Every structure is written in structure tokens, then in C-alpha cells.
Amino acid sequence: LAEVHDAVTTLQEGEAGREADYLELRAEMESQLRQLDTLMRRMDVRSEEQEGLLREVLAALDLLARQPVSAGLADSSAIGPSSVGGSAGKDVYDAAWADYTRGDYALARDGFGEVVDRFGQSELADDAAYWQAETWYAQRDYERARDGFDHMIRRYPDSDVMASAQLKLAYSLLETEETERAISVLQSLRGSYPDSDEALIAGHKLSTLAPDEDAS
């Protein structure tokens, strides 16, 4: 519990400014959250302190989820240069990722789009479509981000980053004031990926949007 609290405190104090530090902090928080949630699910009674800490962690992860994914939440398989050796479009994907991490979102978007257009059946295509939508989110163009995540979800229904895509679609919908649809997406996420970190965050968000929802 102390480790979780320390991670949340670090985030709240803004000490994770550098990209690598932020990603490392997020990974640590997610790991601690999984351990905390597993422990609490095994207990018949949750103490007030434990409930408060869980809410604190979920609120912090909610904050992370609203950031561009380079400093926010995504499945680990979608973060960083491609590790898929020999996959079609790998060089283009890795170059686009480098542009993204430099904050050159327009150039990154073109690169990820090239992967989707030229190598649409490759192992990298779904990740590229995801990151292409993220470039719009990073630039606060939430309507295009919404459309990008929506397109990615429809085109790649079996993607290993589907939970992250649904979560970011929901946040994009909230930004465009499409609250009812956002709630529907969050509910679908919880039903489809109940054991994911994204589902925990979705439950927390639903508790603020639809108080009758159970966030546990």
C-alpha cells in the first residue's frame, strides 16, 4: 500500500516530467494497482483506508488516461518501437514512433497512416491505427481522435490494444460532449475486458458519470 501511495504522490507532485520517467511511473502504478485490486477482491471487508487508497489510485490513473498515451495509458505491447522482427512496415512504424516521441505529431500521423494504408494486414497495422488516432488526441483535436479510435476499433476488432482504444474513444467522446455514447463504450469495455487495468479506470469513470454504476 505504501508503494502505491508513493507512486500516486509522485504523479501528483509532477515529478515525472521526462517521458521515460513517466512511462516507468505508469507501469509501476499499474503493477501496484493489479496487486492491490487482487488483494482487496480476496477480502470480505474493505477498510476505509483501503477504499480511499483505491479511489486515489484510480483517480490518478484516470488522469493518466486523459493524457496523450506517450505519457498515459496503453497496453504495453503498443508502447515503443516495434519489437516484431521482420514485420512488414516495421521501419516506417519505428520512424513514425520516433516522430511521435519528439512531438512531431503531423509527421508521425503520416507515418502511421502509411503503415495502415500500405501494410494493412501486417502485425503492426492495428497499433499504427491506434497511434494515428493518438496524434489527434495529443493535439486536442478530439473529433478526429474520436473518429480515428472508432475506425481502428471497427477495422481491427481482435487487436491486442482494443481495451486501450476503447478507453481513449470514451475519453474522446467525453471531450466532444457525447456523454451517453461514452458511457456505453465504457460499459462495453468493462464487459469485454473485466480483468484489465482499463476496465478498472472505466469503472471509476462510470461512477462519476453514472452514479448507479458499480466501480469495483
Kindly list the characteristics that best describe this protein:
elongated, mainly alpha, Serine Threonine Protein Phosphatase 5, Tetratricopeptide repeat, single chain, 216 residues
Describe the structure.
Helix 1 packs parallel to helix 3 (48-65), helix 6 (125-138) packs antiparallel against helix 7 (142-155) and helix 7 runs antiparallel to helix 8. The chain is built from ten helices and no strands. The relative contact order is 0.10. The chain folds into two domains: 2-65; 76-209, Serine Threonine Protein Phosphatase 5, Tetratricopeptide repeat (Alpha Horseshoe). The radius of gyration is 17 Å and the shape is elongated. It has helices at 2-12, 19-41, 48-65, 90-101, 105-118, 125-138, 142-155, 162-175, 179-192, 197-209. The model is unreliable at 15-20 and 69-80 (pLDDT under 50). It is 68% helix and 0% strand. It starts with a helix and ends in a 7-residue tail after the last helix.
Order of helices and strands, N to C?
A: HHHHHHHHHH
The CATH topology of the largest domain: Serine Threonine Protein Phosphatase 5, Tetratricopeptide repeat
Q: Tell me the name of the CATH homologous superfamily of the largest domain.
A: Tetratricopeptide repeat domain
Q: What level of helicity do the residues show?
A: 55-70%
Give the number of helices.
10
Count of structural domains: 2
Task: State the shape.
Answer: elongated
- Class of the largest domain, according to the CATH hierarchy? Mainly Alpha
